[in-house]
Each structure stands twice: as C-alpha cells, then as structure tokens.
C-alpha cells in the first residue's frame, strides 16, 4: 500500500524534466568550478549554475504542489527571489575581497582595474 499522493502523468513528467534539468545545470556549474584555472574564472560558473539550477527545481516544485493541492502555491517564489538576490551579491563580495587581497599582495595575474586602464590609455 502506497501513501504517496497521486500526481497526474503530465505533471509528473513535467516536474521530473524540470528537476533533472535544474540538477544538470547545477552539475555543469560545479564542473566549471573544478575545471576552470583561477579564482576569477571559477567564481562565475557555480553562481550561474546555482541560480538557474535552483530555478528549475523550484518551478518543478511549484507545479508539483500546485497540482496536488489544486491551488497555486507560491512559497517557492520567495525562495527564488532570495536566491536571485543573494547569489550575485555574494559573487561581488567574494570577487572584491579577492581583488583587494591580490592587489595588496602584488599578484601579477590580477585583472587590471578600469581606472588603471584608463590612466594608461590617456597617459
């Protein structure tokens, strides 16, 4: 005897596709984290993968629970808003901290600032 709720076939296929697609996008971001060569390249892949991957899983969750409860459920929208806001902010803070650290240490692989490139071009 199964106590799992009955989800129509169309909804189950749609939810499965969205969850698998979200997980695959997150996996690609994680692979990018491992494969890219420096911090400044590595920081973008997991950020984009996490945002898009979580989006796919959340849309799948919204569809699943909206169909099961016969009314729209929008709790996941709050999660999506928070992930969409906090992920880029975290990326910017990490990148700025790494830039500051690398510039103080005199690391030659640090990307040049816009101000420094403008001064070289004008001077």
Low-confidence stretches: none
Helix-strand sequence: HHHHH
What does the overall shape look like? elongated
Strand content bin = under 5%
Largest sheet geometry: none
Helix amount: over 70%
Measured on Cα atoms, how large is the radius of gyration? Answer: 21 Å
Number of helices: 5
Question: What number is the mean pLDDT?
Answer: 83
Number of strands: 0
Kindly give the count of domains. Answer: 1
Protein name: Monovalent cation/H(+) antiporter subunit G
Transmembrane segments: 12-36, 48-68, 74-95
Organism: Ancylobacter oerskovii
Keywords: Membrane, Transmembrane, Transmembrane helix
Concise summary:
The chain has one domain. It has 5 helices and no strands.
Relevant terms:
single chain; 5 helices; mainly alpha; 123 residues; elongated; 0% strand
3D structure, described in words:
The chain crosses the membrane at residues 12-36, 48-68, 74-95. Residues 104-123 are annotated as: Disordered. This is Monovalent cation/H(+) antiporter subunit G. Keywords: Membrane, Transmembrane, Transmembrane helix. The chain is mainly α and 123 residues long. It has one domain. The protein has helices at 9-35, 39-42, 44-69, 75-105, 114-122. The N and C termini lie far apart (79 Å).
């Amino acid at each position: 005897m199964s106590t799992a709720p009955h989800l129509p076939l169309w909804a189950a296929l749609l939810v499965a596709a969205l969850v698998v697609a979200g997980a695959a996008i997150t996996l690609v971001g994680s692979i990018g984290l491992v494969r890219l060569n420096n911090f400044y390249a590595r920081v973008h892949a997991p950020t984009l993968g996490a945002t898009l991957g979580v989006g796919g899983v959340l849309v799948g969750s919204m569809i699943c629970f909206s169909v099961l409860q016969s009314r729209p459920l929008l709790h996941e929208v709050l999660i999506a808003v928070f992930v969409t806001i906090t992920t880029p902010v975290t990326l910017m803070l990490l990148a700025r901290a790494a830039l500051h650290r690398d510039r103080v240490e005199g690391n030659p692989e640090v990307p040049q600032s816009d101000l420094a490139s403008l001064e070289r071009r004008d001077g």
